[in-house]
Amino acid sequence: MSKTFYITTPIYYVNDAPHIGHAYTTIASDVLARFKRLDGFEVMFLTGTDEHGQKIEKSAAKAGVDIQSFTDKFSETFRSLNKTLNISNDDFIRTTEPRHKKTVQEIWKKLLASGNIYLGSYSGWYAVRDEAFYAESEIVDGKAPTGAEVEWITEPSYFFKLSAWQDKLLKFYDDHPDFIAPTSRRNEVLSFVKGGLHDLSVSRTSFKWGIPIPNDEHHVMYVWLDALFNYYSAIHNEERQHFWPCDLHIVGKDILRFHAIYWPAFLMACNLPLPKRVYAHGWWTNDGEKISKSLGNTIDPVKLIEEFNLDYVRYFLMTEMPFGNDGNYSRSAFINKVNSHLCNNIGNLAQRVLSFINKNCDAKIPTFDLQEVDSKLLESAYSLADKMRVHLDNQEIHLAFEAVINLGSAANEYVDHQAPWSLKKTDPERMNSVLYTLTECLRIIGIALQSIIPDSACKLLDQLNISDREIKNMTKDYALKAGTDLPIPQGIFPRLQN
Ligand code: MSP
Asked: 451 vs 131, 404, 465, 470, 495, CA distance in Å?
């Protein structure tokens, strides 16, 4: 049996068109999923849409559309965004699907039967935008701490006994220090839980758009209880249950509380094994401003891709800031980053080396007799796979690809220093060895870039005539063979104009 890896994105609310924040979460998960697949894991990569709750009900009413067609339309927009972004998800779940509803209703019955859910009455603050309850102490100037409008609600409600899980959660965090990442976020969660947990209202009676409670037709399920279990309902079948528990939930920092507190508590109450890790990434701003519809500064990923190209967008989003930190989008930063990393570094190296070989080495991988300086560069190329494994297992996406770019820089320095164009006249054999060393570096770089810029990396590997493209192939054992024919090289990374 191969090793398995189960990774998820949050499921997206279908009340609005996707923006750069959604694209970011999904691309990050895609990079990690692709890398694991290339590294020999059996991967299950799940994404989808979160379609119930008051927020969706209100948005559909505002649009004057019936709710099901409203959610159908937006869910389709997210699905098609995945195609546009070249996302390799294995499934796309919608919370309105029967497979999900059925699982969640079973879960409800289990929680009710075990005494984890009881009937009471809720009086308190609720923010529809966040679909979240807030304690009086959290309200700032009449609003939720997130800035969302709150309303006072009083209604009969079923409660989940969250307070009973406080100590068990704290013990779990203690026993599994890697469960919440990055560390700064872990500390926030810990202090929140230590501050005391209240029982959680998990049903609503004042609107209808939700999964009906099996034992009480007046109630629909609280949307977060419904939504979190998507991660379970997608693999709750014979073919996929071996993926449980989930290895990695990628979420934005705004929804960490739901994933790091409610979710493990629900699972403990169901006696189900807990996920291994929840990683909270940061938020994008636009030219320094918070992105919001009311400010009119949302960034449409599709427009960005139409203007530049997909791989440039993927590359920029993944490397502009350390994964976990907040970051800023600006057009000039985008152009500078892409030009300096992809066009001037990797692209230039490939173009120089491959066209030189095409002209001067009969379009074949040259013969070689390596010197120390060559072997040293190659050793660092062969050490790249392990570096990437470590970084990506820690979700240090930016560092994994910084290591690739560093190899490109080292190879560029090497080519300037070795100057094969001068060796052509003085020492053609040495020239061959230098070019061989460089093509071998390009092979490693091409394999390494597949998870972040799949199409461009594929073009690079095609130009090297390589079929072994897995991470395990990034070693000396799979080195290029002298004499292999190479196709006519073509530019892969066109430079962007300011
Ligand atoms: N439906 C819930 C998640 C349920 S998961 C069981 C939800 N949906 S959302 O559509 O509002 O947000 C989805 C993700 O997009 C979140 O992880 C959020 O952090 C992310 N982003 C939304 N705006 C963002 C930025 N400006 N920057 C980065 N990510 C942001 O929450």
From this structure: 34, 12, 19, 11, 21
Query: How far is residue 113 from each of residues 108, 226, 228, 273, 396, measured CA to CA in Å?
Result: 8, 18, 20, 19, 42
Q: Classify 483 in phi/psi space as left (phi over 0), alpha (psi -120 to 50) or beta.
A: left
Residue type at 93?
I
Q: What is the pTM of this model?
A: 0.96
Q: Which of 400, 192, 178 is nearest to 279 (CA)?
A: 178
What distance in angstroms lies between residue 253's CA and the mean position of ligand 1's atoms? 9
Closest Cα to atom 29, ligand 1: which residue? Answer: 21
Distance CA 10, CA 256 (A): 10
Backbone φ and ψ for 158, nearest 5 degrees, come out as: -85, 145
| 3-class DSSP assignment, residue 370 | coil
255 close to ligand 1 (CB < 6 Angstrom) = yes
- Give me ligand 1 centre to Cα 251, in Å: 7
Q: With a cut of 80, say whether residue 292 has pLDDT above it.
A: no
Is the per-residue pLDDT at 293 higher than 90? no
Q: Give 131: exposed, middle or buried? Use CB within 10 Å, 0-12, 13-18, 19+.
A: buried
- E strand or H helix that includes residue 35: helix 20-38
Instruction: Confirm if 452 and 318 have CB atoms less than 8 A apart.
Output: yes
CA 349 to mean position of chain CA atoms = 29
The answer on pLDDT for 294 being more than 80 is no
Backbone angles phi, psi at 132, to 5 degrees: -140, 150
Q: Has residue 12 got a pLDDT over 90?
A: yes
Q: Whose CA is nearest to atom 8 of ligand 1?
A: 12
C-alpha 49 to ligand 1 mean position (Å): 11
Cα–Cα distance between 403 and 458 in angstroms, integer? 19
Nearest CA to ligand 1 atom 25: 21
Kindly give the pairing relationship between strand 248-252 and strand 4-13: parallel
Shortest-distance atom of ligand 1 to CA 290: 26
Segment (H or E) for 284: strand 284-286
Q: What is the mean pLDDT of residues 397-404?
A: 98
pLDDT of residue 1: 60
End-to-end CA distance of the chain: 51
Q: Is the pLDDT of residue 26 over 80?
A: yes
pLDDT at 289: 83
The confidence band for 67, taking pLDDT boundaries of 50, 70 and 90, is very high
Rounded to whole angstroms, how far apart are CA atoms 23 and 27?
A: 6
